[in-house]
Amino acid sequence: MPDRLSALDASFLYVEDHATPMHVGGVAIFERPRSGFTYAQLLDLIGARLAFLPRYRQRVMEVPGHLARPVWVDDVDFDLSYHVRRSALPQPGSDEQLFDLVARLMSRRLAPERPLWEAYFIEGLAGDRVALVTKTHQSVVDGVGTIELGQLILDPAPAEPEPFEDIWTPRREPSRTQLVLDAISEGVQRPGEVVENVRSAANDAAAAAGKLAETVGGVATTLRTLVNPAPTGPLNVRVSGGRVFSVVRTRLEDFRKIRAAHGGTVNDVVLAAITGALREWLLSREESLTPNATIRALVPLAVRDAETAEYSTPALIGNQVAAYLVDLPVGEPNPVLRLQHVGHAMAEHLDSGRPVTARGLLKVGGFAPATLHSLGARAAGSLSGRIFNVMVTNSPGPQVPMYAGEARLVEMFPVMPLMRTQALAIGVTSYHGGVYFGLNGDRKAAFDVDLLAGMIEESLEELKGAHW
């Protein structure tokens, strides 16, 4: 039987255009060890691990006439050096130059005729650092059979990469005739699906709004969403093809102190800090904010698979990410009250779901946040953009150093994709005592994303100094 894309995976291909590439990214910054960390060593490391990720050597093949959804086939011309590329900044490269390059890389679509991922080894950073920028299409990572590349190449202990000898033999691609025959055979069993496949390919994403109740999780939440659509404002515009990217570096201990002082969870404090920053950002744009003004955030969270009590291996995360809608109280001037509102809203969702605690997530092997951010983007991509203003993903990572070969990971910033009418997406990852924010914005609508990044730092300081 052909390895056919799921309806959700196919929809990510159908909705993609030059302004909204459907890939998730990551920026990993490494400290180069004394023994060195070269492009050749990275090729060996990734090449050796691809045996565990067969999807990364497969490409999408369309079925003639769109009689069925596309299929995954082995790329008979697979070239690792095409997917893992080398780049450099003019020395000594600054973080600003790196993030400007990241914005340009993320704005470009992945080549549809090749496996849908790329990695860039970027040298020249000041302080003898190197960066690895990854791009992986949302149709690739499902969290069950395939995880994100960034999760697989990181280990909890340094190890010298061994030279890699590629002995992979691709399977022969099916002919167009075979693809049609397979589609007809499946169509006989499910004739209605043939019509739906043609309609989905010819039009837009397949019935995203119809998945609202299932993805958001709960009839009551769905009814509230339909009755009260997301507020309008500068975050919800038709995005352009350009991107801007900025980051925020904070310490996990600060979030824990705020949690201890005012209650809630670390995730509540993260959302409250973002809320305060969005408030100041909107005011800087002379937006009118009433005391009850809100910004609706889509907050994907990992949930426990009912059949899996514990996660034990990197290849078994379970495609279980629920996307919760949270109204962030940007009209509230008091930072403690903002935190309270966010905490109550999140508690309401978590009481009715199957949340996986941060401790549970940390049991997943490798650097799980890379995969969990991808799954969060999948959950967001299956929803209509009219029901939320901004996506915020937050995934806890290991609090011990991680290594790619012998190179120690210093920082990791997620790069979340933009939907057609979302000008901003925020990814958050905690790692080794730090909490790292990646802000991906539309170059026209969110040109001042650097200003927002600074406001997140100020909002966190405001929470640290807040009293009842």
Account of the 3D structure:
The protein has 468 residues and is α+β, with helices and mostly antiparallel strands. The chain folds into two domains: 173 residues, Chloramphenicol Acetyltransferase, CATH 3.30.559.10; 225 residues, 2-Layer Sandwich (Chloramphenicol Acetyltransferase). Helix content is 34%, strand content 23%. It is built from 15 helices and 15 strands. The protein has a six-stranded mixed sheet with strand order 5-6-7-2-13-12. The radius of gyration is 22 Å and the shape is globular. This is Diacylglycerol O-acyltransferase. InterPro entries: Acyl_transf_WS/DGAT, O-acyltransferase_WSD1-like, O-acyltransferase_WSD1_C, O-acyltransferase_WSD1_N. It is an enzyme of class 2 (transferase).
* Helix and strand sequence: EHEHEEHEHEEHHHHHEHHEEHHHEEEEEH
Instruction: Give the CATH topology of the largest domain.
Output: Chloramphenicol Acetyltransferase
Number of domains: 2
- Rg result: 22 Å
GO molecular function, one term: diacylglycerol O-acyltransferase activity
Pfam families: WS_DGAT_C (PF06974), WS_DGAT_cat (PF03007)
Pathway: Glycerolipid metabolism; triacylglycerol biosynthesis; Lipid metabolism
Domain O-acyltransferase WSD1-like N-terminal: 5-270
Write the layout of secondary structure elements.
Elements: E1 3-4, H1 7-15, E2 23-31, H2 39-49, E3 58-61, E4 71-74, H3 80-83, E5 84-93, H4 95-106, E6 117-125, E7 129-137, H5 149-152, H6 176-189, H7 191-202, H8 212-216, H9 219-227, E8 243-251, H10 252-262, H11 266-284, E9 295-302, E10 321-328, H12 335-351, H13 358-361, H14 369-381, E11 390-396, E12 403-404, E13 407-415, E14 424-431, E15 434-442, H15 449-464
Helix pairs in contact: 6-7, 10-11, 11-12, 11-15
Domain O-acyltransferase WSD1-like N-terminal: 5-270
InterPro entries: Acyl_transf_WS/DGAT, O-acyltransferase_WSD1-like, O-acyltransferase_WSD1_C, O-acyltransferase_WSD1_N
Catalytic activity: an acyl-CoA + a 1,2-diacyl-sn-glycerol = a triacyl-sn-glycerol + CoA
